[in-house]
Design goal:
Largest sheet: 6 strands, mixed
Bound molecules: (R)-mevalonate
Distance between the termini: 39 Å
Order of helices and strands: EEEEHEHHHEEHHHHEEHE
Number of helices: 9
Number of strands: 10
Structural class: alpha+beta
Shape: globular
Radius of gyration: 20 Å
Length: 315
């Protein structure tokens, strides 16, 4: 019996969430310290394909759960691989990315499973499905999670590279002239991206001029952040995060828990902090000078964050 393992990282959006749904740019980076891991093992002949996700107590048969997002990722990868009959496989997927926390756990689970299917098929190099194919599959699954995904989550998780993203355009890499540290902190409050994105959509329909102006403002901050990152002006990033957070508050996607932890991080020396992902819970990110990382991380833990991850952007 052969076993194949594949992984995909978590992600954080540095600037531009929500506005990116409405064609403004966003910047996101992978977070390799947390990941989804899919293990695919050949099963006994005739047993079909079973998918287990112990973290969410899911155990499903591919043939009887066609619409389930876990099954969809595997089914699309099987179709892409040109396999006609259901294969006899046991696929187990685990993840240490917080679920419903804005760190791309759903996209990473789909990407890890699609990567495992393709790796298990042992294609010769010239026939191996590209990252673009995996990205297309994961985007299809993302559409099951929420109706209007911009595509940024699947893109950063699949390519596992920092991306400058504008909806409908090919993702671009960008230069990081000077590495910087982020502390990521989990409020422990689960947040449904689908619900938050659709609330924002409804509010924008009611008040389109105000929302378009806010999205333009977020777009301008994101452009300024790209320039700061490309020129090594790390000191500019904190104030830009503060400004991005101020606009996210105005579209009503922050929360008491996020605001409390953001204030704690800034008091402890972070130069700026903001929510990351859909908001109303989930994770926040803080840009922190390297000598303040431990102080900020401890303050967040003491202040009630249920988990923290420190990551360096750039190398
Ligand atoms: C979710 O991680 C990011 C949002 O901008 C939604 C999306 O881009 O699809 C809130």
């Amino acid at each position: 019996m052969t076993t194949t393992t594949a992984t995909a990282p978590g992600k954080v959006i540095l600037f531009g969430e929500h506005a990116v749904v409405y064609a403004r740019p966003a910047i996101a980076v992978p977070v390799a310290k947390v990941k989804a891991t899919a293990t695919l093992t050949d099963a006994l002949a005739g047993t079909g394909c079973t998918i287990s996700a112990p973290d969410i107590c899911a155990h499903i048969r591919l043939s009887s759960h066609q619409q389930d997002p876990l099954a969809l990722a595997v089914r699309l990868a099987i179709e892409e691989a040109g396999i006609e009959a259901e294969p006899d496989w046991q696929i187990t997927v685990r993840s240490d990315i917080p679920i419903a926390g804005g760190m791309g756990s759903g996209a990473a689970v789909s990407a890890a499973m699609a990567n495992a299917v393709f790796a298990h098929c042992r294609f010769p190099a010239h026939r191996r499905p590209t990252d673009e194919t995996v990205n297309r599959i994961v985007y299809e699954v993302e559409k099951r999670h929420h109706a209007h995904p911009s595509g940024i989550d699947n893109t950063v998780v699949v390519y596992a590279q920092p991306v400058w993203f504008v909806r409908g355009q090919p993702p671009q890499r960008f230069d990081i002239a000077r590495p910087f540290h982020l502390v990521i902190a989990d409020t422990g409050v689960a947040s449904s991206t689908a619900a938050v994105v659709s609330d924002v959509r409804r509010a924008r329909e009611r008040d389109s001029q105000v929302y378009e102006e806010i999205f333009d403002g977020i777009g301008e901050i994101t452009v300024a952040a790209r320039q700061a990152i490309a020129s090594g002006d790390v000191n500019a990033l904190g104030p830009l995060m503060q400004e991005n957070q101020r606009l996210l508050r105005q579209i009503n996607v922050s929360s008491e828990a996020l605001e409390r932890l953001i204030a704690i991080a800034e008091d402890a020396g972070a130069s700026g902090a903001k929510l990351s992902g859909a908001g109303r819970g989930g994770n926040l990110i803080c840009v922190v000078e390297s000598d303040s990382v431990e102080k900020v991380r401890k303050a967040l833990q003491t202040g009630g964050a249920v988990g923290t991850v420190v990551t360096q952007v750039g190398s």
